[in-house]
Write a structure and sequence with these properties.
Layout: H1 5-20, H2 31-34, E1 37-54, E2 65-66, H3 67-71, E3 79-87, E4 92-108, E5 113-115, E6 118-120, E7 125-145, E8 149-167, E9 173-192, E10 197-210, E11 213-226, E12 232-249, E13 252-270
Antiparallel strand pairs: 1-2, 1-3, 1-13, 3-4, 4-7, 5-6, 7-8, 8-9, 9-10, 10-11, 11-12, 12-13
């Protein structure tokens, strides 16, 4: 199943058409833009591509592995996600977001695969575990904010955690786990279309090279929110995450390139 931004744009146009009926001069009052506390929980349905390589001090770099095509882990999976926001005052806000994606599979190899210090021969049944989680924490400053509009910028971290292992009954096993705190700059905006409809967007981006980490991260989020009740509502969003990361540790490197893209269906509460 494939999702594009056009899906959300279509919903946004419907919401905008609803807003046209409002009397001229009326200013929408949507809780997502005014409430001090915001909590969201939903279902993230990403399409995933994963390419990774674990080098060896004795065997060298080896080839990059496509984990979905070569090892059979799912390229699409539904996972829960959570989000919270605290408006500290009129300009400042603090927010956090989290999801994790754990996948496993067993498949016979159609080529020789090197993962770290272990080499898995062709036609070997390899069991794979590839676990990932992302915790995003950011603080933002809204340099433009009215009752129905908000634009701001901030800084934060995507704390990405990887735990990948390959094993067989006869050859052996090899695993690697790393946690990478990746700083990002953020631009965000929220706009109330009516008292019930609102849209939001966020862009995270940074390339980095510090300590044992090297790479880049990008994230795009688009949300359409409908709130028929003052404190509760629901919405649909599109999320795109791109990780290109190299971590050097213990005389070897873990290289990972991942793309997550898909819809988010969520419920929200404002207080």
């Amino acid at each position: 199943m494939r999702y594009t931004v056009h899906t959300l744009l279509g919903i946004a146009l419907v919401a905008a058409a609803t807003a046209v009926g409002a009397a001229e001069g009326d200013i929408p009052d949507h809780p997502a833009l005014t409430a001090k506390w915001y909590f969201g929980a939903g279902l993230f349905i990403p399409k995933i591509t994963t390419e990774a390589r674990l080098t060896s001090a004795t065997l060298g770099a080896g080839a990059i592995i496509d984990f979905e095509d070569s090892l059979g882990i799912d390229d699409e999976k539904e996972v829960p996600g959570f989000m919270a926001r605290w408006r500290i005052n009129h300009r400042w806000r603090l927010e956090a977001e989290y999801f994790e994606l754990n996948r496993s599979a067993t498949r016979g190899t159609n080529r020789e695969i090197q993962w770290g210090d272990q080499v898995f021969p062709i036609n070997t049944q390899v069991s794979t575990d590839f676990d990932f989680s992302d915790l995003r924490v950011s603080v933002g400053y809204s340099f433009f904010r009215t009752k129905d509009k908000e634009l701001g910028a901030g800084i934060g971290f995507h704390v990405a955690s990887y735990d990948a292992s390959l094993r067989t009954a006869n050859v052996g096993s090899e695993s690697e786990d790393v946690t990478a705190p990746l700083p990002v700059f953020t631009i965000y905006g929220q706009f109330a279309l009516t008292d019930r409809w609102a849209v939001a967007a966020r862009l995270d981006r940074l390339s980095l090279d510090y300590d044992k980490y090297e790479g880049s991260i990008g994230a795009l989020g688009l949300d359409i929110m409908y709130q028929p009740f003052r404190n509760f509502g629901f919405g649909i969003g599109f999320c795109l995450l791109l990780f290109d990361l190299t971590v050097e540790e213990n005389a070897r490197q873990l290289e990972v390139k991942q793309i997550f893209q898909g819809l988010i269906l969520f419920i929200m509460a404002n207080f």
